[in-house]
Amino acid sequence: MTRSDLIQLIQRKKSFLCVGLDSELSKIPAHLLETEDPIFEFNKQIIDATLDLTVAYKPNLAFYESQGLKGWQSLEKTMKYLNQFKDEVFTIADAKRGDIGNTSRLYAQAFLDPASSTLNFDSITVAPYMGEDSVSPFLSYENKWVILLALTSNKGAFDFQLFENAEGKKLYQEVLAKSSTWGNEGNMMYVVGATKAEMLADIRKIIPNHFLLVPGVGAQGGSLAEVAKYGLTKDCGLLINASRSIIFASKDTDFAEKARAEALSMQLEMKEILNTI
Amino acid sequence: MTRSDLIQLIQRKKSFLCVGLDSELSKIPAHLLETEDPIFEFNKQIIDATLDLTVAYKPNLAFYESQGLKGWQSLEKTMKYLNQFKDEVFTIADAKRGDIGNTSRLYAQAFLDPASSTLNFDSITVAPYMGEDSVSPFLSYENKWVILLALTSNKGAFDFQLFENAEGKKLYQEVLAKSSTWGNEGNMMYVVGATKAEMLADIRKIIPNHFLLVPGVGAQGGSLAEVAKYGLTKDCGLLINASRSIIFASKDTDFAEKARAEALSMQLEMKEILNTI
């Protein structure tokens, strides 16, 4: 998906919501456990209930890999289902990969390559620690995106991401400044946690226009209004992710309906925000 | 595997060689492509030919994930085969994972949990960028290990790993110092590339006894003698990885024989080095 397609999608749906498909088997409603593929069945019903309110879906790989072969199968089925709606949603492999160039090339193929990948995501999250040659292979597919970790939403973000050089520049700022020259605003985004919203003002000085994928609203306690206040651009420039607060809004047979209600409440708030641009 | 078991294994085999199973389908000898599972068949023959010379095997996940469901199946079969030799080899999932605590917990389950993992590795490589809560879930299984990226063997290592604070401390040094308090010498190792061997002297000042997993000898150009000179401890303290230089020593029907010859040549050099302790 191109940047202008994504912007149009946001305008059309009046939403910049990303739903995280952190579909942990032990949290899926009991009545689905008797179906042939409970994780896929769960995802399908969540997607059906939220597609008109959502611009992106983000399966987190850990929740699939932890189920071994069956989990990988559920992921393939989920992506096959989502890829029917190629023009209606942006897909994110939340995989946080990154390895030497020779290896990243294979990960890129696994997740992004339209010719050979059984998943064929629009984008993948990548960790920056290993530097340029670990990231650039993911940038070699047309209209596919790298979403690089910058400032994450967890407590451990403070351990190394704020490590500061003699000029007062922090590691995450160095990551933003250096990596933004590896790609462009049409193939790179950054992960910036909602729990650190006030830092978005500084981030926008380094990358004024790049899209940001913002986790941490909802279960992790971040605020949508705060994120928009500091991070919104004229093109929106934000994808706000919510996972558990939407997909596990109910653990009963009404889970899809409750997920829709949660997504709708976020989308209505987003519509107001988009009206201010 | 415990630290003392690993040390005994090294003494018994007179080797600290790790063979990287970077089993890329397009590089596997042609005559294997007609077998039911070429990647597994290749791995099995490599393992059979090198088991007495090797203390560790390290499948790199990218090479399996790039084959989708079939690749995951090949990995499960490879691990089932390797886990027959639990006391004879240490196994490393070269996965470079790392996510928020809630998610890392699932990755840990996927790769390490003896009760539920279909892979049941002894260890996993983890990226440090997201900090303590992204790493600690991997430390919760008895006798299982985290191998944390510190100073990698690729060119991109220079992009962020050498980022320096006002006191002249580099990021990888901060990673070593801080993370070594999260676990201990019996459940944490570090990745330090052979291409930066001279930096091992400084690294040993921070972590005098931890095992290091050292990639970059062979195809990437690092030297075994240099690594030993600066990195060897009284317990050895090193696992030297070679991947392509061993497994793709020949692309013909004699690939396993040639792989053994390469492994033997490294093991003989290692035996000499171990005799100096």
Task: Give a summary of the structure in a few sentences.
The structure is a homodimer of 277-residue chains. With 277 residues, chain A is of the alpha/beta class. Helices cover 40% and strands 15% of the residues of chain A.
Question: Can you walk through the features of this model?
Answer:
- Two copies of one chain form a homodimer.
- With 277 residues, chain A is an alpha/beta fold.
- The first copy, chain A, has one domain (3-275): Aldolase class I (TIM Barrel).
- Helix content of chain A is 40%, strand content 15%.
- Chain A has helices at residues 3-13, 38-50, 61-65, 68-82, 101-111, 132-135, 157-160, 171-179, 200-206, 224-231, 244-247, 255-275; strands at residues 17-21, 56-59, 90-97, 123-126, 145-151, 188-192, 211-214, 238-242.
- Chain A has an eight-stranded parallel barrel, surrounded by six helices.
- In chain A, helix 2 runs parallel beside helix 12 (255-275).
- The mean pLDDT of chain A is 96.
Percentage of residues assigned to helices of chain A: 40-55%
Percent in strands of chain A: 15-25%
Number of domains of chain A: 1
Q: How are the strands ordered across the major sheet of chain A?
A: 1-2-3-4-5-6-7-8
Mass-distribution shape of chain A: globular
The helix count of chain A comes to 12
Question: Which H/E pattern describes the elements of chain A?
Answer: HEHEHHEHEHEHHEHEHEHH
Structural classification of chain A: alpha/beta
CATH homologous superfamily heading of chain A? Aldolase class I
CATH classification, class level of chain A: Alpha Beta
Mean pLDDT of chain A: 96
Distance N terminus to C terminus of chain A? 23 Å
Radius of gyration of chain A: 18 Å
Low-confidence stretches of chain A: none
CATH topology heading of chain A: TIM Barrel
